[in-house]
Amino acid sequence: MRVTVTILMFLGLLSAEAQQQYRYRLDFTIGAKDFVDTVQIEYERGQVYVPVTIGDRQLRFKLDTGSSQGVVYDDTFVEGLRPLGHIRSEDATGMSRSVTMVELPPMCLGGLTLRGYKAALHKRQVRRRNEDGIIGFDLLRRVAAKIDVRHHRMILTDRKKWLKNEPGVALPYRLVNHTPRVQIEPVEGETATVVMDTGSRQLLSLNRSWTAASLAGNEDARQQVEGRCQGQMAIGNFGVEQESEVVFLGLRAVRWGDLQLRDVHCITTQGNSHVGAPLLTYGTLTVNPFQRRLVFHPYDERKEAADRGKPTSYCQIGNEQLRIAFVPKNGKAVVGLIWERSKAYKQGFRQGDTLERIDGREVDFDDFLRFRAVYGQQYQFSLRDRKGAHRVVKAEMPTLERVHRE
Hints:
The chain is globular, with a radius of gyration of 22 Å. It has helices at residues 2-16, 208-217, 219-222, 343-347, 365-370; strands at 29-30, 36-40, 42-44, 47-54, 57-63, 70-73, 82-90, 96-103, 107-109, 112-115, 118-122, 133-135, 144-148, 153-157, 169-172, 174-176, 179-187, 190-197, 204-207, 225-231, 235-236, 239-240, 244-256, 259-269, 273-276, 283-288, 293-298, 302-304, 312-316, 324-329, 332-338, 354-358, 361-362, 379-384, 390-395. It is mainly beta. The N and C termini lie far apart (48 Å). The longest helix has 15 residues, at 2-16. The strands form five sheets. Strands 1, 3, 4, 5, 6, 7, 8, 9, 10, 11 and 12 form an eleven-stranded mixed beta sheet that branches. Strands 16, 17, 18, 19, 20, 23, 24, 25, 28 and 29 form a ten-stranded mixed beta sheet that branches. A six-stranded antiparallel beta sheet has the order 2-14-13-26-27-15, with no helix packed on it. The protein contains five helices and 35 strands.
């Protein structure tokens, strides 16, 4: 009863604040000065998580540099949220909506206490129970950070010189919609502006319009196409992206400044181009807001002789191509896109298939996300295609990926 009354009171406050317009700001405070703090982090399924404490509750927030500000979900109950009004918010699919902004109670992150931290209140589209909220790039506009997933730590500091001379290759960034953009070269002679987005599970995704223009005028780029399909995979805070052509690319070398990222497999997206959190499995990333630089330092940096005498530095990536992606539709898991050269395609999965049952047990989208599959084990998938025909496919779990090397 107490929780119900509290929620009703909070909803009443939201109603009273409904007409107030909130403007993005960075007026939260950090309960320390001249500090260097180390925060333990987790890296799981291509995402970075940090532990936070609010009151007596331990929560798990995703670190998302592609989000301009924090997020809390409507099913994550936090006492003491203060409504601030509404703001127009855009998600990863390009959809926008007016959302309620709230101020969080004091939040402990490592040895730091954030007071007055702001967050958007979102309805959770995918019921992942391992994530309570998001810390956005707004934190990293106030402090510098070095993210090191191999050693499960993130260093935070307000000292302007502490991370100034970090080793690695630095790219200047500029802020667009309060998130960092850098220039990279996905194929030789073609420069792309990408969001450094640790909220993305794809190592690299390229805007489809940029890709179409690059392919049209660059024969070398066309030779790096691995396939095409009509599909959708991005799930934002407000829904799933519309179906469109997706191009699968196997890029020989992506330039991050003077550094080559070799053998990068990626796909196109309807939204902005992104470099995602999986890059962090190959090196550390330092975000320096005082110099507006992103510094990537490979764990395994290699050099080879170059024609002009200057050694070429490179990092061998060799990531797997995205094989299949499921999206929610009418509560069920539906094949949003599938690569025709993938094992999943050869086993019988097709674009638009709706997953009805696994081993005879009916599953919805949330059940599918929580399903604990065993690598190498065969399951019976009951599928219904777009025309309504049913069939059974016996296969391994198609979304189970090879574990990244440590």
